[in-house]
Amino acid sequence: MARYIGPKTKIARKFGEPIFGPDKVLSKKNYPPGQHGNARKRKTSEYGIQLREKQKAKYTYGVLEKQFRNLFDKAARSRGITGEVLLQLLEARLDNLVFRLGIAPSRAAARQLVSHRHITVDGKVVNIPSYSVKSGQIIGVRERSKSLEVVVDALTGFNHSKYPWVEWDQPSLSGKLLHLPERTDIPENIKEQLIVELYSK
Fold it and tell me: Residue 145 above 90 pLDDT?
């Protein structure tokens, strides 16, 4: 399966949530897409509910099935609550942190910035979106990329105090991962326990 590049509004309507950010169409059509989207809803099975939650998490963070499974296995082997550790691992991805720091307007844009070698970690260019950032590492914009329109526009007016687990330094256009976020700090509406139950079958 390749990465999804189709209409994002269609996916947001499927889950009934603006998982890719503010969505004007979703606010008007808050029901699933398709011919029967506005018809009476059928009862979803327990497995269907769990699968839906996993799909929501994958679309939210832009992760493919194999990557997601590997992260879950790593979370299951780690200390702590598996579901929370899974979300922490997703939050520690380089593309996600570029988005959280306000360097890019979306995770898809952040992934592109990383892939095109515009982002550094501790001063060295890293072009792997799934790179796992460690606490204390500094994420920056490459010197020749600081004037990129997408970066300048994204940073304009961005509230850098939104996420307490990262720290931003405006003069150098760089940010630091202070620590992995607590579950209560992660704003995504994901019921991670359902994902754990799905993989535990």
Answer: yes
**Kind plus residue range of the DSSP H or E element containing 135:** none
Q: Which CATH superfamily is domain 93-179 in?
A: RNA-binding S4 domain (3.10.290.10)
Strand partners, 93: 132
- Mean of pLDDT values over 120-139: 98
Q: Reading across the β-sheet that carries 138-141, which strands appear in turn?
A: 124-125, 119-121, 138-141, 174-177, 166-169
Q: What whole-number distance in Å separates Cα of residue 98 and Cα of residue 111?
A: 8
In CATH, what number does 8-89+189-199 get?
Answer: 1.10.1050.10
27, two tokens: 């606010």
Token reading at 50: 């769990």
Helix (H, G, I), strand (E, B) or coil at 98: helix
Strand partners, 166: 177
Q: Which two tokens stand for residue 161?
A: 């105090």
Residue 1: per-residue pLDDT? 37
Q: What is the pLDDT of residues 48-77, one digit of tens each?
A: 999 999 999 999 999 999 999 999 999 999
Question: In whole angstroms, how far apart are CA 172 and each of 112, 132, 146, 159?
Answer: 21, 22, 9, 17
Percent of the chain whose predicted confidence (pLDDT) is above 90? 77
